[in-house]
Design the sequence.
């Protein structure tokens, strides 16, 4: 301690207000807190509390209930309303135990007898400061993740609501979704919002390693366990002890490794490859896959008992094409990130380029969007990304072009064929003047250009 707080403009010692009726006790507590490199303000009367708590920013407040507010003023309520969420620690004598309990119910962080050694109070202050700093950090993190992954999408807001409920527990969670939807980011969010946030978060891609290496990576091995094992190796489950392990692409895990993972979930014990003894670990397991595990269980490619162990809470992450409301926030986020990374002052897209993005289906989801915008920032020559700066797959689209003119034997045409034929007819009547055609069609020139590319409409000859 000191605890640097992200809410501050610079790193500085955390500020503590000590309000005690006992001047000598307050002085001793002051010494303990200053020894921990904290900035301390002391007051010994109600007027001092009213003066400072409402005007200065504190990261923690220690309040002696013996001070009592004038005219029945509840100092606890006053501090909760005016001290910007600073943790409040109450000191009480035995006759004030009910007031102390009521204070905790109204939001105080902790309460201690006023006979407690100042060293004990200082320890509680340290815990309170840690809690406060973590809350600020998580608030900023949640906001960042919300902007990065959610935007204003109702579908993703439901995902976030589920995460906020499950994160404080130790439940296993199964994240389902296409590649690139942000499963690892959400797994990291669950970890950061849990009681394990100060312990390791370790991610393993189960599809990236062959079976023998995956088992060694997960559980470790002893020297001589196999050819090339020239020393003991600590596995990732051991490294994650006390924290969270994220098993990505778990649907690609081999049956043998599935069986060993099931034993870990059942017993809380791991055994290094080649070892004779097991050891206990305390690890929360989050898993993700883009494979249909129900189908994999039916085909005997995935263990049913392991599926039920992992599937306590299931969260389905919709693909980006189903939550395009998030596109503006995602675009801003990735543009800011890559503009800074590449040292280029790119701050947006022109109308044509953005229109192309909004009509692209993003088979690679959020990960592909980030790649597209990184490409565009690199290629941009000014402060706006233009259509020519986007990758080819965005400029031409991935859908097959229609063979025009399109005719149907029963006289019924698909809607996109009707639109394509109408656009071609208008262009031909106006001698391929795209500006006039866009005006007559009631669309922008860039929208007309995109639709011509989408449908493969080109002037012949």
Sequence:
């Amino acid at each position: 301690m000191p605890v640097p707080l992200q809410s501050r403009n610079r790193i500085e010692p955390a500020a503590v207000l000590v309000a005690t009726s006992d001047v000598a006790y307050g002085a001793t507590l002051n010494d303990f807190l200053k020894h921990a490199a904290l900035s301390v303000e002391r007051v010994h009367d109600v007027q001092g509390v009213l003066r400072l708590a409402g005007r200065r920013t504190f990261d923690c407040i220690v309040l002696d209930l013996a001070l009592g507010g004038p005219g029945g003023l509840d100092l606890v309520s006053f501090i909760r309303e005016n001290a910007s969420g600073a943790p409040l620690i109450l000191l009480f004598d035995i006759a004030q135990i009910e007031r102390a309990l009521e204070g905790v119910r109204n939001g105080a962080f902790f309460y201690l007898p006023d006979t407690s050694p100042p060293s004990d109070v200082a320890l509680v202050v340290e815990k309170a400061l840690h809690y406060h700093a973590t809350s600020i950090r998580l608030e900023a993190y949640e906001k960042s993740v919300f902007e990065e992954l959610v935007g204003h999408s109702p579908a993703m807001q439901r995902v976030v609501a589920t995460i906020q409920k499950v994160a404080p527990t130790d439940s296993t969670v199964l994240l389902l979704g296409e590649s690139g939807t942000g499963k690892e980011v959400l797994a990291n969010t669950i970890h950061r919002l849990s009681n394990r946030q100060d312990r390791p978060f370790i991610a393993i891609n189960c599809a990236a390693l062959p079976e023998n290496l995956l088992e060694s990576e997960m559980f470790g091995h002893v020297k001589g366990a196999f050819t090339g094992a020239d020393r003991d190796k600590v596995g990732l489950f051991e490294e994650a002890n006390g924290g969270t392990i994220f098993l990505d692409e778990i649907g690609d895990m081999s049956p043998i490794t599935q069986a060993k993972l099931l034993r870990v979930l059942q017993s809380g014990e791991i055994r290094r490859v080649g070892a004779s003894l097991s050891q206990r670990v305390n690890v929360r397991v989050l898993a993700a896959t883009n494979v249909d595990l129900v189908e994999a269980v039916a085909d005997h490619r995935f263990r049913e008992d392991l599926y039920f162990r992992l599937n306590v809470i299931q969260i389905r992450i919709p693909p980006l094409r189903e939550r395009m409301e998030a596109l503006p926030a995602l675009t801003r986020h990735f543009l800011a990130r890559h503009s800074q990374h590449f040292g280029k002052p790119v701050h947006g897209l022109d109308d044509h380029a953005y229109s192309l993005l909004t009509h692209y289906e993003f088979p690679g989801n959020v990960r592909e969007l980030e790649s597209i915008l990184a490409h565009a920032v690199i290629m941009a020559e000014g402060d706006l990304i233009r259509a020519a700066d986007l990758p080819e797959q965005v400029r031409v689209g991935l859908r097959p072009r229609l063979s025009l003119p399109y005719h149907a034997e029963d006289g019924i045409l698909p809607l996109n064929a009707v639109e394509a034929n109408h656009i071609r007819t208008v262009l031909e009547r106006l001698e391929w003047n795209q500006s006039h055609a866009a005006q007559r069609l009631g669309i922008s020139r860039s929208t007309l250009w995109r639709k011509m590319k989408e449908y493969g409409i080109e002037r012949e000859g």
Notes: The radius of gyration is 30 Å. Confidence is low (pLDDT under 50) at residues 1-11, 398-409. The CA atoms of residues 89 and 297 lie 53 Å apart. Residues 118-150 form the longest helix (33 residues).
